[in-house]
From TrEMBL, chains A, B:
SUPFAM superfamilies for the chain: ACT-like, Glyceraldehyde-3-phosphate dehydrogenase-like, C-terminal domain, NAD(P)-binding Rossmann-fold domains
EC code: 1.1.1.3
Name of protein: Homoserine dehydrogenase
GO biological process: methionine biosynthetic process; threonine biosynthetic process
Source organism of this protein record: Acetobacter ascendens
Length: 437, 437
C-alpha cells in the first residue's frame, strides 16, 4: 500500500467519467475545504481515464492528466488511489482493479457486479498486497449500508440482511400500485423519465439487486457469497391484477433481496414479495432504497435513502476516499480473507414460506375443486382464496388467487407444476412469496 | 495513546455494571470468536468497577479484577481502553473520562449528557493526548447514527440532522394516539412496563433528546454545539384532544429533535411536532428511534431501530471497541479540534414555521372574532380553524384549534401572549410546530 504522510494530499486517479465519475469530481471540487478538514488532508484528482476525451461532462477536466488506457492509472506514480467507475464485472474494470491491487494501490469502486462475481478473489488480492478495496457506492447508493453492516453492526451476530435494493424496480412497482397500470406501460414511462435503462433487464430481472444482496450477505456473514448460488426472480410477471389482489389482502408488493443464515445453510434470494402494508419497509416507495439487518443483540435496523444517482453515489465514493485518507482500512469482507471458497446459498426448493398464487382459470363449476385437490395432494394448506369476476366478457378466464399457510417450497413447486398442467388453467401461475419483514 | 501490537488482546476496563455494562460483558463473551475475527484481535475484559460488588447481574464477574474506585481503571497497567458506563454529565463519569484521556488511554462511553455538556473540552483533551474518545452508544442506541453522520456522510455538506431521539416519549405518544388516553395515564403505564423511569423528567421534558441532538449537530456541522443554547420542550402539555385534532388534520405528533444550519445561524430545537401522517418518520412508532440527515449531494437518509436497551446499547459500545482494535480513530467532532468555542444555536423566537395552536375557549359568540383579531394584529395568517363541540356539559369551555401559514416565531409568541391574556381563554395555549420532514 502506498504510504503518504498525513499532510500531503491524497492523489486520485479516476477511471470512468460517466454520471458518477463526473459527479464525484464535482463533489470533490465543491466540498474541497470540508473534505480536507474531515480527511485531515486534501483529496486531489490528478489523473483521469475515459473513452471520449471531447465529450462535454459539465466539468472541466482539461487540467487533469488524461490516460487513454485506464490501466495506466496504476503505473502513474502520481496516483495514490485508483477510483474505478467504469462498471461491469469483466473487461477494463476488472483488469484495472486487479492491476491496482496487485501493485499495492488502494482502490475505491462503485462496481457491484465486480464485487459480487469476483469478491472472493479480490479479497485475497487486497489482503496479499495490503491494498484496501472499498466499495460503499456498490450497494444502495448514498445509504452507508456497507459501513453499517461491516462496522456499525460489527459487534453483533447478524441473522438476516437485505432490503429494497433496486430503485428502478421499486419505482415501477410503486407506480403500478398507485396508478393500476400494467407493467409494460409503466416500464415505458420509467424509461422515458430516465429511471430505467433502454435495456432494462439487469434491473427488472433482479440481477442488479442480486449483485447487491451478494455483497451485503458477504459482509453480514463474514465470507464472500457465490453470486451464482443466489436465487433471482424479477418483476416482469407481476400484473396490475396482482396489485388489486394484494390491496384486498392488506399487502404491498416489493422486490426484496433477503439473505438469512439458517440451520440448513444460507438462504439468499431476490424475488417479488408481499409485505403487510404497514410494515416499515413496505412504506419505502419510488426510487428509494431500504436496507434492513437484524442482529441477535441489536434487533432490527432499517436504513432508507436514495439508492442511485450522481449525487448519492458520489457521496459514497468520496466517503471511502475520506476513510482511506484517515487510514481506516478494513478487510474486504470484514474479516481476514481465508482460503475457504465462497459460501454457496441453498438451492431453490429447500426453504419454506407462505405463498400467494394467482391463476387464470376457466370460469365454470368444478374448477376450484380441481385446483384445491391438487394443493391438498401436495400437502399445501390454504389460508384464503379470492376470485374476481371476469372483467371482460370476451374471455372465458377469470383470475383466482390462493394464499397458503406456511409450506415447503418443494411442495409448492410440485403443486404449481401440477396446477399448470390442468386444462382449466391458462397462462403460467404467478407465485409471490409472503414475507413478514 | 496506548499502543498494542495487533496480535495481543485489547484489554478493557469497564466502569458501571448496570443494564448496559452487564449487557456489554455478556455480548463480549457470547460473541468472542466473531469479535476476534472482525477486530483482528481478542477483546478481553480485565477489570471492572461498580458500586455494589455483591449484586447479582446475571453475569459472572468474579474472575475480573475489581476496583472500588473507577478512577483506578486508568492507573491499572493492564487496562488498554476505559469503558465508561456510569452515566451523568458530572461526578465519577466525568472524572473518569477526563483522567483516562489525560493519561492517553482511549475511552468508549455511552454517556450522552457528558458529551453534550462537555464535548468541547473533551475533544481538546482527546486531541491533546492522542487518546480517542468514541461514543456511538450515546445516540439512538443500536442505530449506528454517529458513524453514519461522521463517516458515512463525511463527503457531504449536511443541511439538517435530527430525528426521533427518545424512545420513552415516542412510546408514550404512540400509545396516546392508539388508545386516545391522556398523558398521565399512559406515562403511568409506561413506568409500570419499564419504558419510563420513576422520575421521568429527563425523558419527557426533552432533555435526553436534546443531549442527543447536541451531539448529532456537533458531528454534522463539525464543531461542538453549546447544549445550553438548544431549545427544549417536552411532551407533558400534549393532550388526548391534540391527537384527535391531529388525526382530523392528517398529522401525527412526534417529539423531534432537529438542527439546521441556516443563513441566520444554527437552529437547534427539541419539541413536539406535527408531521404529515404518511411521512416516513411519522411511521416510526413505539420505543423505536429514527435519525434523519439531509445533505446537498446525498439527499435524505433515515435510519430506524431500537434506541435503547441492553442489547442495542451493548452492540454500539462494542462496535466502538472493534474500531479501536482495528486502529480506526477519528477526532471527536469529525475534524481536528479547534480553539473555537462551542457553536451556539440561535435563541428562541428567531426562526419561522407553521403552527398548530390549541386553545380552551368560552363557548359563546364573538370569541373566535376576538382571537382571530389578535392573530391578524400580530401578522399571523391562518390556514384553517377547527372546533369540537363541548364533550362535557359541566364546563363552559371548548377546544379551538388554529393552524397558521408560515410565520415568524416572534409574531407567534407575541400572539400567544396576547391570546393567553384574553378573558375568554382558559388554560395555557398549546402550540405545536408543523414540520414537513
Amino acid at each position: 500500500m502506498t504510504s503518504c504522510s498525513n499532510s500531503s494530499p491524497l492523489r486520485l486517479g479516476i477511471a470512468g467519467l460517466g454520471t458518477v465519475g463526473a459527479g464525484t469530481i464535482r463533489l470533490l471540487r465543491m466540498n474541497a475545504d470540508l473534505l480536507s478538514a474531515r480527511a485531515g488532508r486534501k483529496l486531489e484528482v490528478v489523473a483521469v481515464s475515459a473513452r471520449d476525451r471531447t465529450r462535454d461532462r459539465g466539468i472541466d477536466v482539461s487540467t487533469l492528466r488524461w490516460h487513454e488506457n485506464p490501466l495506466d492509472l496504476v503505473s502513474d506514480p502520481d496516483v495514490d488511489v485508483v477510483v474505478e467507475l467504469i462498471g461491469g464485472s469483466e473487461g477494463p474494470a476488472r483488469a484495472l482493479v486487479e492491476k491496482a491491487l496487485s501493485a499495492g494501490k488502494p482502490v475505491v469502486t462503485a462496481n457491484k457486479a465486480l464485487l459480487a462475481v469476483h469478491g472472493s478473489a479480490l479479497a485475497k488480492l487486497s489482503a496479499d498486497n495490503h491494498a484496501p478495496l472499498l466499495f460503499e457506492a456498490a450497494v444502495a447508493g448514498g445509504i452507508p449500508a456497507i459501513k453499517t453492516v461491516r462496522e456499525g453492526l460489527a459487534a453483533d451476530k447478524l441473522l438476516h440482511v437485505g432490503g429494497i435494493l433496486n430503485g428502478t424496480c421499486n419505482y415501477i412497482l410503486t407506480v403500478m400500485r398507485e396508478t393500476g397500470k400494467d407493467f409494460d406501460l409503466v416500464l415505458k414511462d420509467a424509461q422515458d423519465l430516465g429511471y430505467a435503462e433502454a435495456d432494462p433487464s439487469t434491473d427488472i430481472d433482479g440481477i442488479d439487486a442480486a449483485h447487491k444482496l451478494t455483497i451485503l450477505a458477504g459482509l453480514a456473514f463474514g465470507r464472500p457469497v457465490a453470486f451464482d448460488s443466489v436465487q433471482v426472480e424479477g418483476i416482469r410477471q407481476i400484473g396490475a391484477i396482482d396489485f388489486a389482489f394484494a390491496r384486498t389482502l392488506g399487502y404491498r408488493i416489493k422486490l426484496l433481496g433477503l439473505a438469512r443464515l439458517t440451520d440448513a445453510g444460507l438462504q439468499a434470494r431476490v424475488a417479488p414479495c408481499l409485505l403487510p402494508h404497514n410494515a416499515p419497509i413496505a412504506q419505502v416507495d419510488g426510487v428509494f432504497n431500504a436496507v434492513v439487518a437484524e442482529g441477535e443483540f441489536v434487533g432490527r435496523i432499517m436504513l432508507e435513502g436514495r439508492g442511485a444517482g450522481a449525487g448519492p453515489t458520489a457521496c459514497a465514493v468520496t466517503a471511502d476516499l475520506v476513510d482511506i485518507a484517515r487510514g481506516h482500512t478494513i478487510p474486504v469482507w470484514g474479516v481476514q480473507a481465508s482460503a475457504e471458497p465462497a459460501l454457496r446459498a441453498c438451492p431453490a426448493g429447500t426453504g419454506a414460506g407462505a405463498f400467494y398464487l394467482r391463476l387464470m382459470v376457466e370460469d365454470r363449476p368444478g374448477v376450484i375443486a380441481d385446483i384445491t385437490a391438487v394443493l391438498r395432494d401436495c400437502g399445501v394448506s390454504l389460508r384464503s382464496m379470492l376470485q374476481h369476476p371476469a372483467e371482460n366478457e370476451t374471455t372465458p378466464y377469470v383470475p383466482l388467487v390462493l394464499v397458503t399457510h406456511q409450506t415447503s417450497e418443494a411442495a409448492m413447486q410440485d403443486a404449481i407444476t401440477k396446477i399448470d398442467a390442468l386444462s382449466v388453467v391458462t397462462d403460467s401461475p404467478v407465485m409471490i412469496r409472503i414475507e413478514t419483514a
